[in-house]
Amino acid sequence: MSSPSPVLELRGVGFVRDGRAILEGIDFAVRAGERWVVLGPNGSGKTTLVRIASLWEHPSSGDVEVLGGRLGAVDVRRHRTAIAVVSAAVANLLRPQITCFDIVLSARNGALETWWHRYSDDDRAEAEATLDRFGAGHLAGRSFATLSSGERQRVLLARAMSVVPGLVLLDEPFAGLDLGAREELIERLAALAADPAAPPLVLVTHHVDEIPPGFTHGLLLGEGRIVAAGPLDEVLTAPALSATFARPLLLERRHDRWWSTAAPAP
Fold it and tell me: 23-67, pLDDT tens digit by residue?
């Protein structure tokens, strides 16, 4: 049987800003059922890749297809409603006084406020159920500004999953979390990865210990180029990780989690 058509495909994608190449020659495809981690150091182009995949940025070269639509040939405003993004950029767009309930409810129309749309009782019930699903039901009436970093990530994840998206992009969702909140989010993402009904996931991070169990594929990105890509067990190796971060690193796996430290000096 042939492989299913990609949900997300980048072909020969490059991105140049102020004369500097941020991404070069990126070939990347995500298919149904796959859970990808994009791993690389700061400045390697990870966030730019997410912005292109979420149709918020146009590449300088190459082709981008997301959920059957080619960038440049679809109405991106409509197409983006099927792409869920969890990132600091989304959090920064939210009004501090907006309630967590309205954050999740407004996602049904790809909006940041509920003022401009009408919502049914079913819409409201589903928003409540989604908040409960991600352990944030008790936060429904709280304003976004009053939440801790961990609570914010739970609400943003609930928002992302409230409309059954076709693709979920998570751009460094662990940034700013303490150890307990980070491990809680890893557990929630592991459960999401294990759900066969969940859409394809793409998680961006620069720490291997933040890769949840159940993630299937890896893209290692260094200086805007692909170092390795494919099944996670095959591409996540000490030599590939060392090449990605440009220094000798050790890598081990324990209890279905990954760990890495600098290699001792010879």
Answer: 999 999 999 999 999 999 999 999 999 999 988 899 999 999 999
Q: In this structure, is the dihedral angle defined by the CA atoms of residues 134, 202, 171 and 107, taken in order, positive or negative?
A: negative
Q: Which fold has domain 8-262?
A: Rossmann fold (3.40.50)
Sole residue written with tokens 């809680």: 184
What are the DSSP calls for 71-138, one per residue? TTSS-HHHHGGGEEEESHHHHHHS-TT-BHHHHHHHGGGT-S-STTS---HHHHHHHHHHHHHTT-GG
Q: Domain residues of the chain, as ranges?
A: 8-262
Q: How confident is the model at residue 1 (pLDDT cuts 50, 70, 90)?
A: very low
**Residue 28's CB: how many other CB atoms inside 10 A?**
21
Write down the number of H helices and E strands in the chain: 9, 12
Work out the end-to-end distance of the chain between its first and last CA atoms, rounded to an integer number of angstroms: 49
Residue range 84-114, pLDDT digits in tens: 888 888 888 889 999 999 999 888 777 778 7
What is the pairing mode between strands 201-205 and 35-39?
parallel
